Amino acid sequence: MKTFVNNLSRSNKIIILMLLDSIITITSLFTSFLIRLDFTSVIINYQILIILSFLLTPFILSSLYLTNFYHSITRFGGLGVFKSILISSILGSFFLISLIYFINIKFQISYNLETSYFIRSIPILFCLILTFLLISSRYFIQNLIEKLFIDNSLNSIGVYSYSKNLLKVADFLENNFNLKVKLFLSSSQVFIGSYINKIIVNDIGDRDKIKNQNLKFIFVVDLPTNNDEKSKILEMLTSLDTTIKFFNFNPTKKIPFGDKLFEDIDIDLLLSREKVEINYSFISEFFDNKEILVTGGGGSIGSELCLQLLKFKIKKLIILDKNEFNLFTIRENIKNINIKDVEIIYKLADVKDNAVLHELFTSSKIEIIYHAAAYKHVIFGGNNYLNFFKNNLLGTKILLDLATEFDVPNFMLISTDKATNPINIMGLTKFLSECLCNHYQIKKNKNTINRVRFGNVLGTSGSVIPVFKQQILKGGPVTVSHRDVKRYFMTKEEAVELILYASKLGKSNELFYLDMGKPVNIYDMAVKMIKLLGRNIKNDNKTTNGNQIEIVFKGLEKGEKLDEIVHIGQLEKTSHPRINISRDEEILNNYNEPLFELLDLLEKNNPNIEDFIKSKFNKIVDIS
Asked: At residue 556, what are phi and psi to the nearest 5 degrees?
């Protein structure tokens, strides 16, 4: 019997309950007549009562179904179930009155041998009896299942929610998975201490009580909107040594859950940052009816730039990338958003190809350039320094020459925090590109040439999030360069929003710095990701259950720093709290001589480039 009950599908359970409710409805109708009249009268009118039962029962069942009575099969109905019963009972009594009145039914009463068209108290009795029997049946079923058919093989779980979604999610989890809710958790004082079906809602901060429950999983339904609170809750959850799973929950839908759990990491959870606020009305005019070129337009930042630029009323967007797959991908993404009244050109070309770029500038009236094309991975710079310099530095020079020749009003170089006091080839190429922009602005100042620096972008190709996630889902190990290594991070969405805003703010030769918040310890991020993906840390004495993932320290790569330096010198605030401007142009001017010597060597393919770099930029450590 126990196995039979546990193996029943949800639809079969609902059918059984509907059959039970049909019996309850018919019983309520006959009982109401029996109480008001007598047994003989019921026997005399049994044919009428059978007809009424056949008409009334489908109506009651439909009403119960439409008021979501069957969404909660056994344990977690709560107030919603009571409301459903009450509404259906009242509607049923009115429907009974309508049937008796419109069909013109006559009842024969045994004790005076008279007929009566309507007995007013019967619908009221029917409503009360039906309500009582439906509530009683659910209470009886709940207790019967808990006492007789409880399955000890069910995994005990806790459910955390900051809002009132605990009850619905708990019911859904029990009815669709091999799970039994043992503990409700919340951080909201509104819900802590209250009961849901005899289970108290506990404070998420009560670690001892939670650990004593030996929970297999804790399902997280939603989190506080305040980022400080959210960060604290995540710290508490990941410290419980219990597998954490996030639930695919959408409270805007009538049935607010999907049919599966998800294993995606919300990047905002890892950063716990406030959302960037952008005044789009302030910057929209800057882009109106403009022809815009985005180099590296198929890359992580470049593609996001393209997508966000299409939110404005631009005239033409030229997307240039030398990677065919990247160009195809951004094309497909743009097709999906159904853009109208914007000419879009997809150019498969190298930023170093002067002839192709010249033709592009000749055929268009480009007014804004976002130069995002660059080699960006530090680990490849040392062994491929020549390609890095040609692509990142020489490519920038070619673009600046064309922007000057064709009087492009606005040029924005997308740079990196690794350009601050660089010790690797990648950072040096970006720093010298900034110096080059500075020179062009000073010597050929018809154009507005600006640069923007920011840190690592989460969720892009090669960034720690997708790499860590892949390693964790494969069972590990997770590789971290050093336990103390820290990095500044932004999401690509917030980085691009701030870049676009900086474009409007930029007047002449600005070096913008985006506020990236506090640096993030990479090891701590790895630990948090492992726990948020429902795993545990291997060799952690506190670990009690779940899949174990090992963290391996591989050592710093050549040219890799423990801590990134965001800026040296003074910063000036702008009208946006997350955008600052550097006023230390003299640092860039000091490198003009070696910069142009290096450019000359690159253009002539001089074989002495490596020796020149080592002699002029002796802080660079990753060149062999």
From this structure: -70, 140
**272 found inside a domain:** no
The tally of domains found in the chain comes to 3
With 0.70 as the threshold, say if the pTM is over it. Answer: no
In a domain, 274, yes or no: no
Please report, as a single letter, which amino acid is at residue 254: K
Mean pLDDT calculated for residue range 202-226: 78
Closest-CA residue to 319 (of 291, 347, 356, 351): 347
Q: Tell me, what amino acid is at 90?
A: I
| CATH code of the domain covering residue 201 | 3.40.50.720
CA distance 35 to 319: 82
Q: Could you tell me if 247 and 293 lie in one domain? A: no
| Domain stop point among 235, 262, 289 | 262
For the CA atoms of the chain, what is the radius of gyration?
35
The two counts, helices (H) then strands (E), for the chain are 24, 26
DSSP of 191-252: TTT-EETTEEEEETT-HHHHHHT--SEEEE----SSHHHHHHHHHHHHTS-SEEEEEEE-TT
Backbone angles phi, psi at 482, to 5 degrees: -160, 145
Q: How far apart are CA 521 and CA 271, in angstroms?
A: 11
Cβ count near 228 (within 10 Å):
10
- Shared domain for 486 and 609, answered yes or no, is yes
Q: Which of 437, 469, 581 is nearest to 535 (CA)?
A: 469
598 is a domain residue: yes
Residue range 69-111, pLDDT digits in tens: 776 555 555 556 777 888 888 998 888 888 877 776 666 666 6
Q: Is 2 exposed, middle or buried (0-12, 13-18, 19+ CB in 10 A)?
A: exposed
Task: Specify whether 159 is located in the same domain as 144.
Answer: no
Rounded CA gap, 211 and 213, in Å?
A: 5
User: Are both 220 and 134 inside the same structural domain?
Assistant: no
Whose tokens are 């330096």? That residue is: 565
| DSSP summary character for residue 287 | H
Which token pair is 543? 């670990």
Note whether 305 and 445 are same-domain residues: yes
The strand ranges marked E within 342-461 are 343-348, 368-371, 410-414, 448-453, 456-458
Tokens 């995606």 belong to residue: 264
Q: Say if 60 falls within a structural domain.
A: yes
Angle at Cα 379 formed by Cα 374 and Cα 382, nearest 5°? 85
Helical ranges in 310-351 per DSSP H: 324-336
pLDDT of residue 354: 93
Q: What is the pLDDT of residues 588-604, one digit of tens each?
A: 667 888 888 999 898 88
Q: Are residues 292 and 416 in the same domain?
A: yes
* Residue 260 DSSP code: E
Question: Whole-angstrom Cα distance, residue 318 to residue 364?
Answer: 9
3-state secondary structure of 155: strand
CB 182 within 8 A of CB 215: yes
Cβ 545 vs Cβ 539: under 8 Å: no
Residue 283's CB: how many other CB atoms inside 10 A?
17
- How many angstroms separate the CA atoms of 369 and 407, rounded? 11
Task: Give how far Cα 451 sits from Cα of 295, 439, 581, Å.
Answer: 14, 12, 10
> Nearest 5°: phi and psi at 279?
-85, 90
Of 555, 535, 542, the C-alpha closest to 469 is: 535
What is the rounded distance in angstroms from the CA atom of residue 145 to the CA atom of residue 167?
18
